[in-house]
Every structure is written in structure tokens, then in C-alpha cells.
Amino acid sequence: MNRTIPPPIKDAVEFDITLKPYEKFTLDNGIPVYVMKSDEQETVQLELVFPAGSWYESESLEAAATNFLMKNGTGKHTAQEINESVDYYGAYLNRNAYHENATYTLHCLTKHTEVLLPIMQEVVLDPAFPEDELSLYKQNQKQKLAVNLLKCDFVANRFIDKYLFGEFHPYGRVSSMEAYDALQTEGLRAFYKKHYNYNNCKIFVAGNLPPNVIPLLNKYFGSTQWNGESNLIKLDLPVQSAEEKKFRIFNDENGVQGAVRLARQFPNRYHPDFPKMLILNTIFGGYFGSRLMSNIREEKGYTYGIYSQIYNFRQISAINIQTEAGRDVCEATIDEVYKELLRLQNEPIPKEELDLVRNYMIGSILGDLDGAFQLIQRWKNLILNDLDENYFYNNIQTIKTITAEELQRLAKQYYSPGDFYELVVI
Amino acid sequence: MIHYNKFTLANGLRVIVHEDHTTPMAVINVLYDVGARDENPEQTGFAHLFEHLMFGGSINIPEYDEPLQMAGGENNAYTTSDLTNYYIQLPAENIETGFWLESDRMLSLAFEDKSLDVQRKVVSEEFKEHYINKPYGDVWHKMRELAYAKHPYRWMTIGKELSHIENAKLEDVKAFFFKYYRPINAILSVGGNVTVEQVKTLAEKWFGDIPSGEKYNRNLPVEPPQTAAHKLEVKANVPLDALYKCYHMYARTDKRYYAADLISDILGGGSSSRLHQVLVKEKKLFSNIDCYHFGSLDAGLLTIEGKLVKGVKMKDAEKAVQQELEKLQGEIITERELQKVKNRVESLLAFEDMSLLNRANNLAFYELLGDAELMNKEFENYEVVTAAEIHEEAKLLFDENNSNTIYYYAAN
């Protein structure tokens, strides 16, 4: 056997990827329910999504605080009683607030779904926002922030978003001690009333569902016009990016590493260049074999890891290159990033590398579509962004067919070093 | 119930196959029975550094990652105090690429100076990123040295000090490889859209002719029972005081491990757990507090760690923790609370099993514990624990003489 010869492989372009369709139901009050069933495991995921992210705040941190505190006491039960019930069934009732949306997600064993839904209903429909829970939240969040502010990567992430979008835009706004101090229960109640309504709720469920899942959802979320109707208008907000391009910040005089960030604005996912740039970004810094990793980690050993990402924000996106590098090699790291940007502008990507990245990306998508929880996640991203499966299939097609010339054109348009903000936080 | 088949190659390599035809993917998991506990005390961090070198090319294949990515695959690895685990996920049609790559690096690495030079630097940056340049990042270095006198758990997987990694030599790397990275010390677990017959054929073809190697018989220093409380005060540039308390618990295969694990959940599992409810919510002494352990194979540490609310005195905070531990030693827990923590385990295991990668990884892990079948019996081990046993174990575990405490003070 000759071990130097690789076994034959099936190429990415030959893989036929299909996005398994969801089932859609509508509750009596009009709430859409997107369902992805599977009968393999005895587990369920049930997610309620609301347009209740930081985008809609009139006071900083309102969205996150409202979302967090809904679970900490209702008209009928204290935070402890709620936690006790959820924990008793080994379930997880998680909540998250993002830029645009906020969510409540239940994970549980199928057999416990029915007993947990009333608890979830209470939290979403009848939160009390007790005064003492808010003051505890403020205290503990401020303590957490104090610790995070010592970390160069945390500080760098705050600054770079501020440079990109401006501190008054929801994408560039950051938490602060003062903003926590200013939070009031009345503000949270008002935010809750306006953003957690039956008419702007979407439900996504996946897993091995109880046969009566739709009647159950109807019973707890579908029968009334809870919190009334709320008509939210979402307009693009003005972006005020920084004039200056280069920043060096000393956060910790004794720091042994620096957090390096290089970033620029980029159009959102609706722009025709977006799906193409996902491929160029992968080549540049989006996987372990990327140009940045090969050069800066595997060749020079400046860092444990370096990545480039494209933000998935709705109004406007950005390209952000990030790493933590040895204190004395931060500047050398930046030089190498620029060299790699220029190399993509000046030289077409070799066929072998492009083929490899096509295969890698398709394989990775295939892996990501494995299982009902992952599938509903993929659909959720499309639905919440007003897209359908054509967007997904077009992206796959782009991965399979994009040319080196087209990628070089994109590099020339978006990879000019002078367009990037440059930040080092030590 | 996880279904699997098991066989052993003539060279001693144990192979587990878990068929799952609902997925288009396959995973290959290779577990080597070597971790940081097997290191020479003068060359700590070696098992982990070695893990990095496993990606630097093997005897017949100059690049590990490229052919895998070309086949649509992804991979990673991790090292713990106990073991080193490598895993691949790729489309099932291309599974042979995984066998080719994994078998060649089990056969022999390329052993190149360049790879060692670079990975020494990479690991140094990893060390800095996680343990030096982070507030409280050094606490586990200090805790391990405080809690262990003899057992190699007294150093961290990343290594005791940077110099051990910086001084690593190629000849040490070679010796390490041929001692531990042999078929006789490894477990191959394959899962996904594959068949047992297919895996048998591929395993024979690619791994069958690798020399067996010598079985590594572990003979580690035994940690003597702790007979007096250990305490350490630290001052550092952090914004909040923190309290860390560790108690020696049981080995992973000890029956009493399960009671101790449930105790950690009673104290620290979820927002309704005792420590969070009493110390964060009611008494407002801590802004967060957790109780956990690492599930290590030899006797590990049951850990309580929390950050104090600004202005709270360390001795008041510690006393309140102590009271919670005494409560567990004094009163038998209710059946409902016992049922709660068992339900939590049941759920946790079910969610863990959802991922194909976890299933393949866990089958290899339980095989290392003695038998892959243990994976299917795991929940029973928790189900049989009684409230009386929890009570007994709490008395033993939380004995003051079994305690190790770090008072971590904010310097300004």
C-alpha cells in the first residue's frame, strides 16, 4: 500500500445539498409557528422570537435588562419558584437579546414539554420586574463589567464597533456603569409592553415533539391578543464612523499580549457581493487553513489564533480581523495582515486552494444541517431576515461556481489596507 | 441507548463503530491514553504541545489539514490531564480520507524542527492568552499546587511554566510519540453514516500494519489523604475579591463519584441551586458563585468559586459558604431535591447524546474507563444514589482537613 497517495474523494460540486422544508402552522391569534420534526432523540427546542433587541432602545441596555428580568419574577411566582420548576425537570429556559431580536428558548425532554409550557407562558406574558431583582441585576452586571474591562479582547471589541458604527448607533453602543445605574423598572415595563406582543411574536420548534404540540401552543400562546397590538417601525439609523483610522490603547501596562483588530464597513447580506465575500473571507481568515492562520500562526507563531469574520448585522455589516498576539509582535502581525490583503488583490487565488475552500465550505454546510435543531436554526436566520430557501441555494451555487477572477475583483474593492480601522489594545 | 459494535485489531487497537444512517456525515475519533498526568515533572505541558505537533505533517503526508479540508472535513483535538483526543467530521462518502490521515500520523510523525519551533511559540501565546493575560487566570496553577502534594494533577495541562515548553527538544518529542502514540494505547471510534463491515475493512487496511507498540502501564504517584486544611492568600490586579475552595473527591470509576457529582449540582447546578439562591440572591454576598468539578479520571477536586460583592468581607463570605456546606452535612436532602438533580443529569445526558461527535467521543471515553457499554449504564449509576449517601459523602467531602482555600484579593 502506498500511503503517499490519498484515497479518492467525492468533490463538493457533486454534493446535492437540500434544505429540509419546515412545516408551518398558525395559532388562533395569528402567531406563526415553524416546525422541524425529528424522532431520533427525546428532546425538544422551543423558541419565541420578538423584535426586542437593542435596536429599539431609548435607554442603553434596556433591551438586555428587560429580556433578562422577565424570568426573575411574575405576577404569580418569584424568580426562585420559576427557577426551581425549570430546574426540577432538568430543562433550560434561556433568554438572549441581540441587536434586532430577543428570544426565550426552552430546551427540555419531550416528556416534560407539557408541564413546562405554563411556566414559559408566565414568564413571557406576565413578568413583574420586581425592584429588588433589578437592583441585584445592576450590581452583578457592573461587577462582571469591571472584570471584563481588564481583558484586552473585551475592550478591543467595544472600541472597534464604536469606530465602525459610532457610539449612538445600536451596533456601536456599549455597556457602561452609568447605563446600568440609570435602568428603572418603569422603563423596562414600558419596553416589555411595546416589544413582547402577540402580533410580533414568531415561534420556532424542533425535535421530537409531543403529538399535541400545536394545541398546546395554542392554549398557552395562541388564545388571546396578549399585550395588545404593537406596530413597530424600523428605519435605518445614521452611522457615524470614526474619522481617524489608527488607534493604540494601553489598558493594562503589564499586559503580555495585545488584542489586534482590523475592521472596515461592508454592505449587508442583501448586497450581491455578500455571499461572494463569505468565500473570500473564508480563504483569507475564515478557517484553520486560511491565509492568516497559515502565515501568522503556523509560519510565524505570533498568535494562538487569528480569524476574519463578516458581521451578520441587518442594516450594515463589517469585516473584522481579530487576534490576540504577543505584545512585541502586534505591529508585525498588522504588517502581515496587510501583506495578505495585498496578496489577494495582486495575485489570483490558485485553483487548488479555491477548490479546497469550495469543498471545505460545502462539507461544513452539510455538517451544519445535521439534525432538527440545526435545521430550524438555519431556517430561522432566513425567516427573520425576510429571506427564503432561494437565498440558501444561491449561496451554495456561488460557492460551487465562483471564479478566481471574481474573487480578485472583490479583493481589489474591499481589501485595501487604507480602508481598515487599525486597533491594538494592550 | 447508544448502539455500537466493538472489535480489536491484531496490533491491539480497539475499534468502536456507531452506525447512524440519519446523517450524511461521519466522524472519526482517535483517543490516546496519555495526558498531562503522564508527564515528567520537569517537562510539563508536553502532552498538549505534542497535540499541536500532530498537525505538523506525518511520515507520508506533508500536510494534515489540507487533504482533509479538500474532502470537506473539519477537525480538532484537545488534551486534558488524563487523555488526548483527536476528532474529524466529514461527509461520509469521504471517510477513507480520515482513515488515511489518522493512520499515517499514528504510524509516525514527520518530526520536523520547523514545526516544533513554531508550535512552541503558538503554545506560549496560548499560555499567555488563557493564563497570564486574564484576570484570575493564574488561580488554577496556584490551586493545583496547593491541593496536590504528589499526584501529577498538581500541574496544569498547559504546563507548570513557560520554560518547560520553550525547552522542548525534538528527541523528547520522538520518545514521547513512540512510548504513548501506539495502537495498543489508542481507541478508534467511528460514527455516522457508515457500516460495521466498512469500518472493519478500512481499519484493517489503514491501521492493521502499524506496529503494536508496548502497552503503557501507568504507575503514578498516589496522592496521600490530606490531613490539614491548606490556605493561600493572593493579591493581584483584579477588581473584585474572589474565594476558591477545593475538596478532594473520588476517582471517575469510584462508585462514590456519582454522589459527589450530584452534590456539586445541588450546590451549584442552575439558578435554583443552593449557593446561587442563598449567597447571591438572598444574602447578596457574591455576585456569582459556582460549584463544579472536572470529572477527572483520578481523584479530582470538587470546587466552589465565587466573586464577592464589593464591600463584603472575605471572612463573612467564607462563613456563609461554610454554613451551606454544614447544612448539607447536617440535614438529609428532600426526595424532591434529589429527584431534581437526577432529572438534571438525565436531561444533560440526553442533550449531550444529540451530537454525533459527542456520541463517538463518549464511546471512546467510556471504553477508556473500561468498557464502552458503561455509557449506556451511566444514568443508572446516578439513579441509585440515595439521600442518605449524599448526606454521608457531604460529611466526608467537606471535612475542614480536606479543604484547600484561596483568598484572591483585589490589590487596590
From TrEMBL, chain A:
Annotated SUPFAM superfamilies: LuxS/MPP-like metallohydrolase
One GO molecular function term of this record is: metal ion binding
- Which residue intervals define the domain Peptidase M16 N-terminal in the entry? 35-143
* Domain (Peptidase M16 C-terminal) ranges: 185-359
Note the PANTHER family from the entry.
METALLOPROTEASE, PROCESSING PROTEASE
Q: What is this protein called?
A: Putative Zn-dependent peptidase
Taxonomic lineage of this organism?
A: Bacteria, Pseudomonadati, Bacteroidota, Chitinophagia, Chitinophagales
UniProtKB/TrEMBL annotation, chain B:
* Residues in Peptidase M16 N-terminal domain copies: 14-130
Q: Which UniProt keywords apply?
A: Hydrolase, Metalloprotease, Protease, Zinc
**Is Endoplasmic reticulum there in the keyword field?**
no
Keyword rRNA-binding attributed? no
List, for all copies, the residue spans of the domain called Peptidase M16 C-terminal.
Answer: 169-344
Q: Name one GO molecular function term.
A: metallopeptidase activity
- One Pfam family recorded for the sequence: Peptidase_M16_C
Report the sequence similarity comment from the record.
Answer: Belongs to the peptidase M16 family.
Kindly provide the name given to this protein in its UniProt entry.
Putative Zn-dependent peptidase
Species source reads Chitinophaga niastensis
